[in-house]
Amino acid sequence: MKKTNIALFSALIATAAFGFEFHHPNLRDANKAAETAIAHIQEAQAANKGVEFGGHAEKAIELLKQTQQELMEAEKYVDMHAKR
């Protein structure tokens, strides 16, 4: 049940991040770096024939997706509070 919830949460964040446009270049770069890190972890899992590194790799992916969510919130905050 817990893995199902984590997978659903991860899918929702990935969907949100995909349709979100970053304007701040550093936040955009940080989001891209998190996406690249996720891809590297998934490649390591695949190369290790499905062994998920004791659940630590999956936890790292979850935390990176949470990072992406926080980056989106930071971008929204800047957009709302920027002096115009």
Kindly list the characteristics that best describe this protein.
single chain; 84 residues; mainly alpha; 3 helices
Overview of this protein structure:
- The chain is mainly α.
- The chain has one domain (2-81).
- Helix content is 79%, strand content 0%.
- It contains three helices and no strands.
- The chain has helices at residues 2-18, 25-47, 56-81.
- Helix 1 packs parallel to helix 3 (56-81) and helix 2 runs antiparallel to helix 3 (56-81).
- The chain is elongated.
- It starts with a helix and ends with a helix.
Report the count of strand segments.
Answer: 0
What is the helix/strand order? HHH
SS content category: mainly alpha
In terms of quaternary structure, the protein is single chain
The number of distinct helices, counting runs of at least 4 residues, comes to 3
Distance between the termini: 47 Å
Mean pLDDT: 84
Overall tally of domains: 1
General form: elongated
Radius of gyration: 15 Å
Question: For the report, how would you describe the main beta sheet?
Answer: none
Helix content: over 70%
Low-confidence stretches: none
Strand content: under 5%
Write the layout of secondary structure elements.
Blueprint: H1 2-18, H2 25-47, H3 56-81
Brief rundown of the structure:
This protein is an all-alpha fold and 84 residues long. The chain has helices at residues 2-18, 25-47, 56-81.
